[in-house]
TrEMBL record:
It comes from Marinisporobacter balticus. InterPro entries: ANL_N_sf (IPR042099), CapK_Type1_Caps_Biosynth (IPR053158), CHP02304_F390_synth-rel (IPR012685). Signal peptide: none annotated. This is Putative adenylate-forming enzyme. Coiled coil: none annotated.
Amino acid sequence: MIEQLKILMTYLKSKYFIRFHSREVLENWQDKKMKNFLKNIVPLSPFYKKYYEGFSYDNWKELPLVDKNRMMEYFDTFNTVGIKKDEAFQIAFQAEKTRDFSPQIHDITIGLSSGTSGNRGIFLASKNERIKWAGTVLAKCLPYSILKEHKIAFFLRANSNLYDTVDKGKIKFHFFDLLDLMDDHIKNLNTYKPSILVAPPSMLSMLAKKIKTGMLKIDPQKVISVAEVLDPLDEKYLSDVFNQKIHQVYQCTEGFLATTCEYGTLHLNEDLLVIQKEYLDKNLGKFIPIISDFSRTSQPIIRYRLNDILTEKKMPCPCGSHFTALEQIEGRCDDLFYFRKKESDTLIPVFPDFIRRVISLSSDEIKQYKVNQVRLDLIEVFLEVSDDRKKNMKKEIEKNLERLCNQFNCLIPKIQYIHKLEEQNGKKLRRVERKFEI
């Protein structure tokens, strides 16, 4: 009962009481939060205590950066609760193997990232952090009041005590394991009848196809895409099938970063964290986020450079929020394509969004696609489309790619069409992916 009351208090605070009348007011509030956070938390983390020795917290925006590699290398002294990396990995790997995600170390939940970059990470969450997370997520994601009944169906690669925290009172939560059979998912969903459906877009697309065939009979009030980049192609298809706007949650090992408002615009959760922008192209609004999360204490995330590319929205959102609005999540920095410049050895970076447009502008009949860059001079393309349209579509793709390369004054790579979409086996779907390192 006490836990439910704490979740309710966090929900009310997040939904109704944290309000900012201007961007300046928000940034001043964040500045005070960060200075107080650093003063209280840095002494508890041996890593940060040494790393920031001699630096002033008044200039916290200039503190040295950290990233995933550094966090994992110094994990034992990075966290503030004395958990060792080997012990945490053992718990997390055992949970992955047995599909029993309940074990903890003391009251600390241990989670394992999906490791799409080949470097798996660990996240920690104390009981108090889980309660605050649950109240905040409910405030930002529930379509109606917390006092009404909600039945959440949540599809992910791994469950966690973190997610089970929301299963309180009138909030019913059911975890669906992405590794389970689709027939079992359909049977359980038809019985459960969720009011909120949360899943990666690749799974949402599979469920949408089952709805169209009549096998799946659910009518959720809200559909939320998580874990993977929501491609415009998928977004349109899902919106048509579910007859509603598709919402998004941007969350990763490093934090609860963004959620959509009632207009479907992704806003950074700047009431939980500060996100500084390392611009890749300021004119296009494309940047790498540097996170400082003043809501996490067991595993402090301070001046943490993510490996994602975000695009900020140029026009203000009609909702009136002063939180930064995003046009889209591009994907990982690892998925930037590189083409060789004409008459030079210079490599030109090409954002994933440009590659998506090469495909999407070729036809509005594409059901599924994937583009891999396997060499500087070769890309692979998978297309799911009717055979009678494929020939013309390939010509359009080649024209679009040629146009893009001419725009960047770079050599046009060869296109090799593949006939099978590679198996994901519970991994995140990356529609645009570079298969080699630069």
